[in-house]
Write a structure and sequence with these properties.
The chain has about 375 residues and is mainly alpha-helical. It has helices at about 35-40, 45-55, 60-70, 75-85, 90-105, 115-140, 150-160, 165-180, 185-195, 200-215, 220-230, 235-245, 265-280, 285-300, 310-320, 325-345, and strands at about 20-25, 30, 35.
Length: about 375
Amino acid sequence: MSPTETYSPGLEGVVAGETAVSTLTGGLSYRGYPVVELVKKCDFLEVAYLLLHGDLPDPAADEAFRDRLASTTLPAAMSNWLEQIPRDAVPMDVVRLGIDRLALHDPETQETGREATLRKSERLLAQVPLLIGALAAHRHKRDVFARPALGLTGNLLAMSLGREPTTEEQKAFDLSLILYAEHEFNASTFTARVVTSTEADLHSAVSAAIGALKGPLHGGANERAMDVIRAAGAPAGADAWLKGALARKDKIMGFGHRVYKAGDVRAGILKPYSHEAMIRAGHQDLEETSEIIEKGMEREKNLFANVDWPAGRLYFAIGLDVPLYTPFFVAARVTGWCAHVLEQQAKNRIIRPKSLYIGHAQRPVK
C-alpha cells in the first residue's frame, strides 16, 4: 500500500459517493425535510413520493400517485407460484425470489432509462406489500384478508394480520415505514448502487439489496429484538441477565449504530408508539424489561437503541409474525433503494474499489 493510500475496515468513514436523497448530518432528513417533521405532517405514501420524485406532492399529484399504486396488482402467475412455496420458508427468501419473479412479468424490466425506472419503482412500491400480504395468508393457510380501502400501508397491515387493524395500529405502523424508508449509504442501499453501477436493471438491484438487508447486522435486527427481551425474562432479573450476556460477549441486537453514536433519532421518534402499543396489548412486564435493558446497555456499553429496538416491540404488540418484520422493512426501504438507483443511473460510474492484498508474495510455480 502506498503512503497515500489508507485502509478502513468496513469502509467506515469512507465517502463512497454523492447523494441528494438523504443525510444524517444535523439529524436525519429526506430530500432536505427533517424526518422529525415528516412523521408529524405526512404519511408514508407522501414520503415515498418525496423520495422517488424529489419533492412532496401537491394534492393533484398525490391523488394521481395513490391511484397508480391502487391500480397496480400482482401478476396472476404469482399466486400459482406462491402455492408451491413451503409454508415454513424464510419470508425474506420468498420476498427476494418474488422480486425476481416480478421481473419476469414486468414489460419494462430491461429498460434502464429514468422514466421507465420510475414507473417500475412505483410498481414495486405497490407490489411488495401485496406480495408480503399474500405470503402472510399462505403461511397461515387462510384467504388473503385484503382491505384496499385502507390504503397501501393499512392494507398491508390488514393482510399481514388477517384482521381489521385499529386506527392506532395503522398510525404507528405507517410511521414505522416512514422511518425505515431511507437511510443514506447503508449496506443494502450501497449494494443496490453497486449493482446499478454495472448498468443492471432495477429488479436486479432491489433483489440484491434484499439479500443484504436479510442479515441480522442490518435489517434482520428487528426480528432479534424480541428474542433479547424474552430471553431476559421478568423485570426483576433483566439487569442480571444483561450483565451475564455482556460478560459472555453475546450480541445484543437493537443497539449501536455505525453512524449514530449518541442515539438513533428514529428510535426516539418510534419509542412512544411502541410503548403505548405494548401497554395496550398487556405486555407491561416485557416493556419494563425492555426499558431495563435499554438503560443497562447505555450504562454498561455506552450503546443506545437503534430503530430496530422499538420497531420489534411495536410489531410484536400489534400481533405481527416475527419472520415478517424484515419484509416490512423491505416494503418501506424499496422507496429509498429505488431513489438511489435513479440517482446512480443519472450520474453513473461503475463502483470498483481497490483491495489491500495480504496474501503470499509472488512465487514461482514448481
